[in-house]
Write a structure and sequence with these properties.
By secondary structure, the chain is mainly beta. The protein has one domain (2-291): Beta-galactosidase, Chain A, domain 5 (Distorted Sandwich), CATH 2.70.98.10. Helix content is 1%, strand content 51%. Strands 4, 7, 8, 9, 10, 12, 13, 14, 15, 16, 17, 18, 19 and 21 form a 14-stranded antiparallel sheet that branches. A 3-stranded antiparallel sheet has the order 1-2-3, with no helix packed on it. The mean pLDDT is 97.
């Protein structure tokens, strides 16, 4: 099912399957900002990543010696959510534990995903409630893909990313869906990174320690800007498909892929949030669509 929220500036469509964004359209510019999905490159559009980010070694992990299987990015993106709240400009969707989730992840939880419009901005919130009587370990993240280029006749290399602050960052290398343990330079006391397909030939750029509260996708030849908030998140993924795809994903995360050779014990997985029984974890970021 497709749900819709709108205001004077934006119309946003969200699928009940995976609580996934499927459209962010400017009502003034008649411009679609969100990647529309194409299996030639990537059939997805804006995954919710829960309860893991990225892949596991051999697609498996253990808890208390018992083995479980889970696909990359977890199961939330593959399951139907129910409406918990809806108005003209706000939608909240809910996923709880079920036989399907318990077979992969032996914990009781509620996952709420919210979308709320405020002018030219869309606020994307995620809430996890621990319904277990034990500590809940999980990762959580977003995966929105944006059309890049936005306009006909452009190419990705016409675009750049502008961070709020000068950053010195290294990217964590990936191979075959897992981190290798190696790093490579990404930014050196700079705030601007050109966008180019070559950036993604070795998979996503995975960054830790970003200080900026936001980054912008922009093109010097037009005035359209996409700004994505980063504040509060521990990790950032920047990704496009390696076969010269016309989109880029800006992904605020809590957690990262497993590393080659990692211990399968889930409690040793890097970047997990540990949520006490009965407690709630909240996070959110804004996506803004403007002209500058």
């Amino acid at each position: 099912m497709i749900h819709q929220i709108s205001n004077a500036d934006l119309t946003v469509r969200i699928k009940s399957l995976g609580a996934e964004l499927t459209g962010i359209r400017s009502n003034r510019e008649f411009l679609e900002y969100l990647w529309q999905g194409d299996p030639k490159w990537w059939a997805g559009q804006s995954y919710i990543l829960f309860p893991i980010i990225g892949g596991l070694v051999d697609g498996r992990y253990t808890i208390d010696g018992k083995s479980f299987e889970m696909k990359a990015h977890g199961f939330a993106r593959t399951l139907e959510f129910e409406v918990a709240e809806q108005s003209e400009t706000r939608l909240v969707l809910h996923l709880g534990q079920s036989a399907i989730t318990l077979a992969q992840y032996p914990f009781a939880f509620d996952l709420f995903v919210s979308y709320e419009l405020d002018g030219i901005s869309l606020r994307h919130g995620m809430r996890v409630v621990n319904r277990s009587d034990v500590t809940l370990p999980f990762s959580l993240g977003a995966h929105p893909g944006f059309n890049c280029p936005l306009l006909p006749g452009e190419k990705m290399s016409d675009y750049r990313m502008d961070f709020e602050l000068n950053e010195t960052l290294t990217r964590r290398n990936k191979r075959n869906g897992l981190l290798t343990g190696e790093v490579a330079p990404f930014l050196e006391n700079a705030c601007t990174m050109p966008l180019d397909h070559a950036l993604f030939k070795q998979d996503a750029a995975i960054l830790k320690g970003v200080r900026s509260n936001w980054l912008k996708i922009r093109n010097a030849c037009n005035s359209h800007v996409i700004r994505v908030g980063l504040s509060g998140f521990t990790d950032l993924g920047i990704w496009s498909a390696a076969n010269d795809a016309p989109f880029v994903c800006i992904e605020p995360w809590f957690g990262v892929d497993s590393t080659q050779g990692d211990d399968p014990a889930f409690e040793k997985k890097e970047g997990l949030i540990w949520l006490d029984a009965g407690k709630t974890f909240d996070c959110a970021y804004d996506m803004s669509f403007m002209k500058e």
